[in-house]
Amino acid sequence: MPLLFTNPAGLWALLGIPVVILIHFLQRQSKELPSSTLFLLDAIDRQSIQGRKIDRLRNSLPLWLQMLGVLILTWLLVEPRWDRDAIVQRIVLVIDSSASMKAFKEDAVTALGLEIPPLTTALNEVSLTLIESHDDGDTLYRGDSLDDLLQTVREWEPSNSAHSPEASLQVGRSLAGSEGTLIYVTDHEIDPPYGARLLCIGTPIENVGFAGHRIEVREEETAWEVTVMNHGKEPQTRQWTLAVGTQITAPRSITLAPGEVRTLAGKFPERSPGIRLLLEDDAFSRDDQLFLVPPLPKPILTAHSVEEDAEPLISDLIRSLENAPLFDSVESTAEAPDLVFSTYNPLSPSPFPPKAIVFLHQKSVPREFFSGLITAENHELVENLNWQGLIAKKTPSIPATSEDTVLLWQGERPLIILRLFPDRKQLLFNFDVAQSNAPRLPAFIVLIHRYVDYLREAKVAPAAQNFDLRQPLNLAVEKGDEASELRFIDSTGAATLPAGRASSLKAPRDPGFFSIYHGERLLLTGAANFADTREADFSEASSRSDLPGVSKKILENQTVSDPWWPLWVITLLLLALGIWAVLAKPGESSPALSPMDS
After folding, report:
1. Phi–psi pair at 360, nearest 5 degrees
2. In terms of Cα–Cα distance, which of 370, 369, 374, 378 is closest to 386?
3. What was the pLDDT predicted at 560?
4. Fewest beta carbons within 10 Å, which of 107, 324, 364, 381?
């Protein structure tokens, strides 16, 4: 097992050996013993009579005991340890994948290059793992090369919104084990759980960027409005431009006070596929550009088959829908409509269209009102809608089935029924809407729009939309083994994937335009933009490292100390006592001389 000295400074104790030798080169001044008899002088060793001076080294027991004591003391001071056999030191780094880390990516590489080597130099085998901090974070690197890990960080592109790293840190701790080292790399100070060490590499920076947008579709034009925000603590001035295709406007200047939000507005040019708004670059570039396309929802072909007196209500509802062209009647449509507005007379029943919103309509005006508590089902179509002001009159009921989902009750009467089958999608209003106050309730209008959006999402048709970065696309595609492949095209290139993987599609990681084709058919024209203003605020960014001292703890976990150190301490004490006993032993006394001998 390799021998390690955890306290190399203890080797300075070896300087005690030349000091001991030097001391033993020195001779003490001789003592004067008055004697009246000269024959006694032959028995006296020759000694210095001039005091201490350098003389020949005299071999003695104290000399060797003292040198042995210096060696034992040095051994104890250097704190020797041995590596354990077959021990792998696991170091797991969870790196903050929020977008703000893009501004400090090079700082992260530098910090890791300085902080990680002291954790690995004293060990036989090291396992390095790098994972992202968001819930679905990828494992970016796994191996034993620090250079490869640093290269991975250089090529990595953080793009997520603000999130909690707790789930990833829990995974990291399971990978590192109880004795491994878990490090969380971020730009904002937190106290990470699961015994993770913090490596914070942020610094406050001044940042100005786009903070949001709004698009209004009018009858003859589409207008855009965007906000620009100064997230810093100092006034800032930036140049901005507008680009349409290859044409770019002249730069214009905008000045913002600390924390100020300003608005820019304009109109989409006719037949323009999209526009780009560009701000002068700063340290954080993700919010310095904004890509916008004129939104165009999937078309919903509508038709109606209603009684004449209900036609004004239906016409108003259809006009409130986006991109919902209306045909005069069901029979006149060249293709099957996506949605039919229909009325149902319980006194003269007729089948419902397969895809329909059906309103119960009775020509005779009912006199009594429904009574009882109004309760809504826990369903996304009626979530957070208030129906307590609804007033409806009693009528015969639409025949119900066991497969129906009742969205709204009043007492024992189902007022709104949802029927979803592979061949039928129907929303049934089981009360006379024309004889109620439902058209004046916001809940009624919102429910109609939610249901139309539900049908729109399921339709395979082209659309144009603006997205946040990494936002799920919820793309509807053809099903089956013979369905055409999907082609995803953005600024980085094109990728092809099976239609069955459409549910996993997300907007790109970086701002820009993109499009998706289903075979040769264009399904989606989109723009992806950075939208998390929390990640654009660097006023609380800071630096901190909890790694100093970790290398010593790792060394203690991965090595064993000298098991004989108590014996060396006892030996050192015994040597000290032995040296003292030898030096303190009195010499033979000279015989006393009487005056008679002189």
Report:
1. -65, 130
2. 374
3. 65
4. 364
Going from the C-alpha of 130 to that of each of 496, 545, 553, the distances in angstroms are: 28, 18, 21
Tokens of 184: 């969380």
SS3 call for 211 = strand
Domains of the chain: 3-83+563-597 (no CATH), 92-204 (3.40.50.410), 208-287 (2.60.40.3230), 302-458 (3.40.50), 463-529 (2.60.40)
Q: What is the DSSP string of 289-301?
A: EEEE---BPPP--
Neighbours of 404 (CB within 10 A): 17
Global confidence as pTM: 0.72
For 541, the 3-state DSSP assignment is strand
Q: pLDDT band for 310, please (50, 70, 90 cuts).
A: confident
Work out the pLDDT band at 452, boundaries 50, 70, 90: very high
CA–CA gap between residue 359 and residue 228 (Å, rounded): 47
| Those residues with Cβ within 8 angstroms of residue 182's Cβ, 6 or more apart along the chain or in another chain | 92, 94, 169, 172, 173, 176, 194, 195, 196, 197
Distance CA 526, CA 261 (A): 26
Nearby residues of 38 by Cβ (< 8 Å), 6 or more positions away: none
Q: Among 414, 415, 421, 514, which residue's Cα sits nearest to residue 469? A: 514
Instruction: List CB contacts of 405: < 8 A, sequence separation 6 or more.
Output: 377, 379, 417, 418, 419, 420
For 556, which DSSP code?
H
Give the separation between CA 14 and CA 72, rounded to whole angstroms.
10
The CA distance from 436 to 427, in Å, is: 17
Express each pLDDT in 386-410 by its tens digit.
999 999 988 888 888 888 999 999 9
Report which secondary-structure segment, H or E, holds 451: helix 442-458
At 204, the amino acid letter reads: P
Of 516, 520, 518, 532, give the one whose Cα is nearest residue 293: 516
Looking from the CA of 387 toward its CB, the CA atoms found within 13 Å total 24
Contact 543, 202 (CB under 8 A): yes
DSSP H helix total and E strand total for the chain? 10, 31
In this prediction, residue 30 has a pLDDT band, given cuts at 50, 70 and 90, of low
Q: d(Cα 338, Cα 324) in Å, to the nearest integer?
A: 9
Q: Which residues of 10-23 are buried (b: 16+ CB within 10 A; e: fewer)?
A: beebeebeeebeee
The DSSP bridge partners found for residue 212 are: 227
Q: What is the pLDDT of residue 527?
A: 96
DSSP type of residue 144 = S
Helix axes 61-77, 16-25, angle to 10 degrees: 160
- Residue 14 tokens read as 């070896």
Residue 466, amino acid: N
> Nearest-CA neighbor of 454 among 397, 352, 401, 383?
383
